[in-house]
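Input:
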Amino acid sequence: MADQPMSIFALAQRGMSAQLVRMNAAASNLSNAGSLARSEGEAYRPLRAVFAQELDARSGLSSVRVTQMMREDTPATSRHEPGHPLADENGNVWVSPVNETAEMVEIMESARHYQNLVEAMQTAKQLMLETMRSS
Amino acid sequence: MSESIFGIHASALELRSQRMGLIASNIANAATPGYKAKDIDFASALAARQSGASRESAMAGATLYRVPVMPSMDGNTVELSTEQMAFAENAVGYSATLSFIKGRAETLSRALKGQ
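Output:
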């Protein structure tokens, strides 16, 4: 696989994998929405996938890969709840700064890109089959 | 050999296939920060190929960056609607070229069979 020029199928597959990583990160963020922590440092921070292009010089195709998973640098909010088991000495608990709407939009956008790739791959596959079929 | 049988259609099909990969790359990188969408000027690539340039140099000479309608904040210039249109147009062009090639091949096979 590595010593062949990249095909359009490999390209679509890599793109789809990258979108899947992004969608999983958003789903993790959603499931941790509203989770509480004892201190600001311990609070859950949203995960983000960082994409970069990966050029295959022999075929001229550029696929995409996930270079790193980053934690978003948003401050956790505190809530005064003295009776809570996780409350600190001031009676505060720290809530994870997850924006549910933003995460849903992230998942929707990711799904759109995924669909687009599937459709491009299907068209390419159909054209290839037509080319191979002798009349 | 294939040049004399299929004429312009042989190089056209090759370039259509290359362009399909290029547009698919744009679609795959629709969410990559800083990615600049590319496309080829098909007419000039075909003209270069007809005048004897190799496939690589014809492609490289006609590859241009797409001018975005509305650039996004992260420097990405892929617009999915534009790419979808280009991909569809290219697929139709590929199909048309392919049917021309099939027609030529059929003509030849009929001549060989003596029908």
